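Methods — Computational structure assignment.
A single polypeptide chain was analysed. Its primary sequence is given first, followed by the predicted tertiary structure written as structure tokens.
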Amino acid sequence: MTKAVLLSKGRYQARLAQSADDLEAAQRLRTLAFGTDQIDTDAFDAGCAHVLVEDLRADGQLVCCFRMLTMANGADIGRSYSAQYYDLSSLEDFDGRMVEMGRFCIHPDWTDPDILRVAWGAMTAFVDQNRIEMLFGCSSFAGTETAHYLDAFAMLKHRHLAPKRWLPRVKAPDVFRFAARLRRRPDAKKAMLRMPPLLRTYLMMGGWVSDHAVVDRHMNTLHVFTGLEIGSIPPARKRLLRAVAG
């Protein structure tokens, strides 16, 4: 395998983008997956490593992509994409390498759950190779109607809020303060059905979220800040991830 290949499992291969054409392909997939009118690109793309997951049985069709912005420690967190929407000053003292994972998407015509597994395996390989100690990003719910996700938000409040020392504060003008507003006990089945797959995977590994969701009308999403301390991943989960990555 070339240095750019992070993981090859079955019909899928995950590799780092190496050219302008690779980046353009990722941007086209993002545009398709997010349903935006214009090509999905921003100023953060240039500073990120881009991971491409391709279907080798479909002539290398790009079926998933995401980007990763690496930081030396929490002092750099102000240059992250997430910092546009959340006050992350509580994380400035984090003393370890961090990576922000963003723009995660899967081709709408591909529904194979192995794609998500390979993507997380590739992420694990990247985290190990770069000695990352915290993974974070924005986890999105489709649409901006909070009523669709009340059980999911109640579940986040009751089980998955960030530790107080890392808790992001409100910065965006339009937010849903679910931790303060919701009094309901979550229906666990409904909550997990409504939970986005990417966020569900974060939570299974011990991830945590902000106490509010940002209403992003430009992207037509609700998103929560999500963090995962690598050292806190349960050993059994870590072994599974590394088995995929290996």
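Note: The longest helix spans residues 114-129.
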